[in-house]
């Protein structure tokens, strides 16, 4: 019996992400407020592919400066897009991000957003910006994060004009808040400045534990349907909230790992059609490229990745959602689907996790091993390459 083989279109993927960094199709106009997210997915994808090395340093510097343009003048975080910059500070434009941008304008409607702040930090770390420690005030960002925490331990995405937490408080923002705190160096035993408080870690972890459902999964809120993407958010937040070698296991022990494992493992689809081997996010749904990462990374975080069928997963991604014409990855097996930055990056991220796992190195997965993906390792909790992760934890903060 002839062994099934596939082809990985590395060069097309690199070209796809570079196109996304240049000009996007008109359908992305509605995503202008999420522009930092699109840039993060594109640069993170190039990083895994080794494509960042092909970008001139002058261009990388332009990307960095573009990100710093979104740094709020109060130094408390980043806005998601320039469309939210409603006040005039042209005379101070050259000072944004240099530590001297004390603008007296009214910032009532130009508040930092936690998601934008997280994406901005990830981008600057992917670009290996050593000046990050000088150009942002991590204590002011931490203080804003603390003010976004609610009494139950969860986080809102930002503050309203009166300075109160505003917006949906669910596990997505718990993960985002924990990631910000980690990337700013406050989870590696670094004590916050005397003038600033840390988040309430215990309440934060207890809130996450309280969201776990009867089936082991996590939903957006208590008593809501379990969702694979939200499971990742909860696990990542737990690990990052007290991440060091002595407490990582304790944070995971706050949830029922056995029930969670069962919920996650049953997300891998077994069928007679093209959905076979992929992962869905909820019961009775088709496979979706993004859940191939959310579920796989969750199982890696609880050290149960041995329960994944790596070969079937890689066949789903390589043969059915990899876009062989444009590069990138489609969301689903629908022939009318086109790639987008989110699914393209997460498809690569899933392949990076399983192709760099030790069990694959032992030849247990012939299809996956035969692809010779040569993708950089990815950190499953911060969702950046291991190389970028190492850069982040070695930053010399003031």
Automatic annotation (TrEMBL):
Domain annotation Prenyltransferase alpha-alpha toroid: ranges? 8-381
Task: Supply the Pfam families for this chain.
Answer: Prenyltrans
Q: Which residues form a coiled coil?
A: none
Q: Which domain of life is it from?
A: Eukaryota
Presence of keyword Repeat? yes
Report the GO terms under cellular component: CAAX-protein geranylgeranyltransferase complex
Give the record's keywords alphabetically: Metal-binding, Prenyltransferase, Repeat, Transferase, Zinc
Listed cofactors: Zn(2+)
Tell me if Zinc is a UniProt keyword of this record: yes
Output the Gene Ontology terms for molecular function: CAAX-protein geranylgeranyltransferase activity; metal ion binding
Family membership: Belongs to the protein prenyltransferase subunit beta family.
- What is the recorded name of this protein? Unnamed protein product
- Higher taxonomy: Eukaryota, Fungi, Dikarya, Ascomycota, Saccharomycotina
């Amino acid at each position: 019996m002839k062994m099934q083989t596939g082809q990985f279109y590395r060069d097309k993927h690199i070209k796809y992400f570079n196109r996304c960094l240049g000009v996007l199709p008109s359908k992305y106009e509605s995503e202008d407020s999420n522009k930092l997210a699109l840039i993060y997915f594109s640069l993170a994808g190039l990083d895994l592919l080794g494509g960042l090395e092909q970008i001139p340093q002058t261009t990388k510097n332009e990307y960095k400066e573009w990100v710093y343009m979104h740094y709020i003048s109060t130094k408390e975080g980043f806005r998601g897009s320039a469309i939210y910059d409603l006040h005039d500070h042209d005379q101070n434009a050259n000072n944004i991000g240099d530590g001297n941008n004390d603008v007296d304008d009214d910032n009532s409607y130009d508040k930092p957003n936690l998601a934008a702040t997280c994406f901005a930090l990830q981008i600057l770390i992917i670009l290996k910006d050593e000046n990050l420690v000088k150009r942002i005030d991590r204590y002011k960002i931490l203080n804003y994060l603390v003010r976004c925490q609610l009494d139950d331990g969860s986080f809102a995405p930002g503050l309203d004009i009166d300075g109160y937490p505003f917006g949906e408080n669910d596990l997505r923002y718990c993960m985002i808040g924990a990631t910000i705190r980690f990337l700013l160096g406050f989870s590696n035993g670094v004590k916050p400045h005397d003038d600033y408080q840390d988040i309430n870690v215990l309440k934060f972890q207890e809130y996450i534990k309280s969201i776990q459902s009867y089936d082991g999964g996590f939903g957006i809120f208590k008593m809501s349907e379990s969702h694979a993407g939200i499971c990742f958010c909860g696990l990542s937040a737990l690990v990052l909230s007290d991440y060091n070698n002595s407490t990582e296991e304790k944070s995971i022990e706050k949830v029922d790992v056995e029930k969670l494992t069962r919920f996650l493992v049953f997300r891998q689809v077994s069928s007679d059609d093209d959905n076979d081997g992929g992962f869905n996010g909820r019961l009775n749904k088709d496979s979706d490229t993004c859940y191939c990462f959310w579920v796989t990374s969750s199982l890696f975080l609880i050290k149960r990745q041995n329960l994944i069928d790596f070969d079937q997963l890689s066949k789903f991604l390589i043969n059915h959602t990899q876009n062989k014409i444009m590069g990138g990855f489609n969301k689903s097996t629908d022939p009318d689907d086109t790639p987008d930055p989110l699914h393209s990056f997460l498809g690569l991220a899933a392949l990076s996790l399983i192709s760099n796992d030790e069990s694959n190195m032992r030849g247990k997965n012939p299809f996956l091993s035969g692809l010779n993906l040569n993708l950089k390792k990815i950190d499953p909790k911060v969702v950046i390459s291991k190389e970028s992760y190492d850069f982040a934890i070695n930053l010399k903060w003031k």
